[in-house]
Amino acid sequence: MTPSTDTDTGLPLDMIIFGGVGDLAMRKLLPALYMAHMHGNLPASTRIISTGRQDFDRAAYLAQVEEQSRSFIAKENFNEKSWDGFLRLLEYVRLDVQAAPDFSALAKAAHPGAQRVFYLATAPALFTTICDKLAESGLVDQNARVVLEKPLGRDLESAVEINEAVGKHFAESQIYRIDHYLGKETVQNLMVLRFGNSILEPLWRAPNISSVQITVAEEVGVGSRAGFYDSTGAMRDMVQNHLLQLLCIVAMEPPTSLSPDAVRDEKLKVLRSLRRFGLADIARDTVRGQYAHGVSGNQEVVGYHEERNVPPDSKTETFVALRAHIDTWRWSKVPFYLRTGKRMQRRSSKIVVEFANPPFPLFPDMPGGVANRLVIELQPEEAIKLQIMAKQPGSGMQMQQVALNLDLQSAFQQRRAEAYERLLIDVVRGRLTHFMRRDELEAAWAWADPIIEGWNTLGEKPHAYPAGSWGPAESFALLARDGFAWVE
Questions:
Q1: pLDDT computed for residue 394 by the predictor
Q2: So what's the pLDDT on residue 390?
Q3: How confident is residue 472, by pLDDT bands cut at 50, 70 and 90?
Q4: What's the mean pLDDT in 260-284?
Q5: Which of 63, 274, 358, 465 sits at a 20 to 30 Å CA gap from 257?
Q6: Is residue 250 part of an annotated ligand binding site?
Q7: How many CA atoms, within 13 angstroms, populate the side-chain half-sphere of residue 382?
Q8: Where in the chain is the domain with CATH 3.40.50.720?
């Protein structure tokens, strides 16, 4: 799913990370950049400049990287010589974006004539200030690129404001709105699965498909993110971006090419075809949950209300399940069930495409349920399984479901890059396909906003579910009344 041409400028690279001492930078960005460096995927003249409020000199910053970031690199990928070479790329500039920031030190540290990538690993409220100051300091030119971390706003209005503010200084072709799910190997492989195999495309529509499930389940709770999470919730944090992007790839029409705009045009059509929810639809077709005390990973854990920095009367959802419809000929009357939650039974992200059962029950002993499923597992393992019916050995025609299993990790022996590594390389090489365009983002918010507003109007508390479970009972009832069940 990579465009045939890159827009690599051939210039030296300055990768400038705002929030360079933060959790995201230490856990994800720096390990990803180390892997890209080790495998020769960064320009030879690369520098990584981290900014933060801490009063570090370069030695103190490198000590922080050694302490906080090195442990997130798998042992089999770690090489002392490569690590030493990577550390030589790092620099640190003290810069407090929240306190009348002075960008003169950053402008002095940046190399004249370099291609600059600004990674904004900060709160979205700071994006406007950062971009304004970058432009005032003369750091934005036609070769500059800016990476915006999610969540981009908390509703359509704030998303438009951010897009307008960033768009004053950066052209749309310079803006990379990152969603790390689009960097996962299996998600990108879904495009090849759909459009590179003639066996599936004729079946990829109603009435051949009876339903689609998309699940992103997390075993962890809110942890140190409780303060942020309580003002956000699962709908804004996961559904509006990650799950809708997965839905788009499943449901989109074949693009005319693999160019960024051709792919994103088709995703936009899906978002605009999503049926809007009224109050009655919200009450019937959505389920909000909030985890309570329970057992997770063989350990007793507290409920959401007992988490630090969570108000005791909070109505913030940690779980969402809903039934969506796409009003197009291809997907007429096919329900899309979306589900995400924290403190679920285990970490699991998957897409389940359920095919319609045979129209006539030729085999009376055929087990009940769905005969054929395509299960695309995104994490923790990456695999594609086609479940079909087969005859059991012996006399008679007893049947059971078996899986044709493509284990991607055993099928391809070469190293598999992590999502952030792959996406950062795309930014450096100017590949926009796996990043959201402005109209995509705003269309997603236009669909999600009425649901959030409807929950506020209804004023109902989220349904409690024990930590370590698969969510509230109401989410199972959501599918059961249509004759389906979540595939665990």
A1: 76
A2: 80
A3: very high
A4: 97
A5: 274
A6: no
A7: 18
A8: 13-149
* Cβ 433 vs Cβ 263: under 8 Å: yes
The angle that helices 156-167 and 127-136 make with each other, rounded to 10 degrees, is 10
The neighbour count for residue 486, using CB atoms within 10 Å, is 18
Residue 184 in marked binding region: yes
Domain 13-149 part of CATH 3.40.50.720? yes
CB atoms within 10 A of CB 300: 10
Annotated ligand binding at 422? The verdict is no
Residue 338: partners with Cβ closer than 8 Å, 6 or more residues away: 214, 239, 243, 247, 320, 321, 322, 324
Show which residues are catalytic.
Answer: 242
How many other C-beta atoms are found inside a 10 Å radius of the C-beta of residue 216? Answer: 23
Backbone angles phi, psi at 384, to 5 degrees: -125, 125
pTM: 0.92
pLDDT at 366: 67
Mean pLDDT, all residues of the chain: 91
Angle between helices 30-38 and 80-87 (to 10 degrees): 120
Q: Where in the chain is the domain with CATH 3.30.360.10?
A: 182-480
Choose the CATH number for 182-480 among 3.40.50.10140, 3.30.450.20, 3.30.360.10, 3.30.565.10: 3.30.360.10
* Amino acid (1-letter code) at residue 398: Q
Cα separation, 397 vs 148, in Å, equals 57
Do the annotations mark residue 407 as ligand-binding?
no
Q: Is residue 342 part of an annotated ligand binding site?
A: yes
